[in-house]
Amino acid sequence: MTPQRASKSSPGAPLLALAMAFSLLSGAARAADLKKGDPCPSFQLVPLASTASAGIPLEKLLENGEPVLLSFFAAGCVPCLTEIPTLEYIAQTQNVDAYLISVDSAPADRVKSLALKHNFTLPVLLDPAGKRAGLPYGAVPGPQTTSPQLFLLSPDKTLWWRSQDSAAGLEKELTNQIRDLNEALARRVPAAPISLDSDSFLLVFTNSANGYLSPCGCADLPFGGVSRRSTFFKGLRKKFPDPSLLFLDAGDNYALRAPSLQSVMDVLDVLRYDAMVLGDQDILLSGKDARKTLFNRSRPFLAANFEVCDDAGCDAPLPHKIFKRGDLRVAVIAAMDPDIYTLAPKTWKKWVHLTDLRKKLQESLPSLRENNDVVILLSHSGLETDCSLAENIPGIDIVVGGHSQTALKDAIRVTNLNSGGHAFVVQAGPNGQYVGKVVVRMQPDKTVELTGYELVPLTDAIEDDAEVLKLLPQ
Questions:
Q1: Which residue, 124, 264, 260, is CA-closest to 206?
Q2: In this structure, are 173 and 213 located in the same domain?
Q3: Number of other residues whose CB lies within 10 A of the CB of residue 1
């Protein structure tokens, strides 16, 4: 499959190998001694993949307004090579742009062979012997050429964090530092203005709240919360009059940590989503009460390939719904992959009946495609399945996903193998910490493009909504 996916579990151990290298830095390398808040030295480095002799300046790497992670490495450094898959994982799942900087004296061809051998997916910049960037950053390798060094830069070209001599818990530390930097940026950097016309609308999406109605303020859940989400939604509705917005949720709002299933449903009623799909947690943990509690007809649940039962019978939501946004007809069809229930208790099958996901989509999509401008699949199936559906089943413009709890810093663009067209896969991460938003725009050639993609962290800079707070346990 073409797109590289971000899995639910992290490689974990590779970053621990960094500890083998830090103590071997030379005295000259330590002389730079950059500290948090210091301006970072400028440099201009040639990309490994470029045939041009002109280098790319640091300022160019920072112009997207996102944090930038620099990892200095050398060809003979085993810990450097070991950490790269983890850095690739972090770059794909966190809101950060990552670059590998080769400080080896070896010719570019040797570095290129190394990159091919280890299947690097991160861009590589060449800094022979570390003269242009390695030395100013204090990352020139010592005599043993074992010096993986990480630097996390703010978009204003100041240092936010650098790796230290101890690698204990380094992967978690790096993830936390990226999160903290993005939270700080969200407080001080205004979002880019959004421009909408009759051929566009703003798609707002969430998934996998996992019963977290309030943030705990701890390291694992520093932000989020449904009261902040409600404030954010109301702000968008005030700024963009109907019908400019489409609010979708990809499931797993409920979990046993929530006060009750009814409390979660009450909050969802206030949030006023246009369409939602149920997640496995929503159904599994609701048991035979799912039909009675979840399928209140005022709630916009959709489901094309399953029904929920109790002792009195079975019920299924609508398979899809059509919305008018500007001049566009937007079809939203919702489904989930039966494979995610492989380990579910046998008794559960009494309450939920699922049909084949792909077969159902192949039956439903041709008509939706013919009669609508934009087709969105609201999927509770996981990132890998979502990308596979976009790649193999024609007729989908956007997949709004859940289940794998992946925080995609950019939409994944997938080429369909049958039609040759493209689709986008989006997902907003775990525990209700982010709200995703993106402008969906119809092009003159009737294809769909996305602009202004952003995962907005629900920090304490967003006020709590008093209407929602009344629904939460005190």
A1: 264
A2: no
A3: 12
Alpha-carbon gap, residue 97 to 404, rounded angstroms: 22
Cα 428–Cα 408–Cα 379 angle in degrees, nearest 5: 55
C-alpha dist (Å) from residue 162 to 58, 70, 143: 17, 9, 21
Domain boundary among 159, 188, 217: 188
Chain centroid offset of residue 267 CA:
24
- Mark which of 188, 218, 246 sits at the end of a domain: 188
Please check whether residues 63 and 118 belong to one and the same domain.
yes
Which residue range is the domain that position 161 belongs to? 13-188
Q: Where does the pLDDT of residue 164 fall: very low under 50, low under 70, confident under 90, or very high at 90 and above?
A: low
State the total domains in the chain: 2
**Are residues 154 and 235 located together in one domain of the fold?**
no
Helix or strand (DSSP H, E) at 19: helix 19-22
Q: What is the pLDDT of residue 288?
A: 63
Q: Which residue is it, tokens 């990309």? A: 47
- Co-location of 152 and 241 in the same domain: no
List C-alpha distances in Å: 96 to 39, 73, 155. Answer: 19, 19, 10
β partners of residue 422 = 415
Asked if 312 and 305 touch (Cβ cutoff 8 Å), the reply is no
Indicate the pairing of strand 200-206 with strand 245-249.
Answer: parallel
Instruction: Tell whether 107 and 134 lie within a shared domain.
Output: yes
The pair of structure tokens assigned to 137 is: 């950053």
DSSP string, 451-465: EEEEEEE--TTSPPP
Is the domain of 346 the same as that of 232?
yes
Give the per-residue pLDDT at 296. Answer: 62
CATH number of the domain enclosing 281: 3.60.21.10
Report the alpha-carbon distance of residue 43 to residue 55 in Å, rounded: 9
Q: What is the spatial distance between Cα 85 and Cα 410, in angstroms, rounded to a whole number? A: 19
Q: How many CB atoms lie within 10 A of CB 97?
A: 20
Supply the pLDDT for residue 2: 37
- Domain-located, residue 401: yes
Query: Residue 254: what pLDDT?
Result: 86
Rg for the chain (alpha carbons), in Å? 24
Q: Among residues 63, 58, 141, which one has the least CA distance to residue 106?
A: 141
In whole angstroms, what is the distance from residue 163 CA to residue 150 CA? 5
The region of weakest confidence among 171-175, 206-210, 401-405 is 171-175
Task: Say which range, 14-23, 116-125, 235-244, 438-447, has the weakest mean pLDDT.
Answer: 14-23
Q: Which residues contact 84 (CB under 8 A, 6 or more apart)?
A: 14, 71, 73, 100, 118, 120, 122
pTM confidence score:
0.67
Using the 8-state DSSP alphabet, how is residue 55 labeled?
A: P
pLDDT tens readout for residues 250-262:
999 888 788 887 8
Q: Which whole number is the average pLDDT over 93-106?
A: 89
Q: What is the pLDDT of residue 26?
A: 33
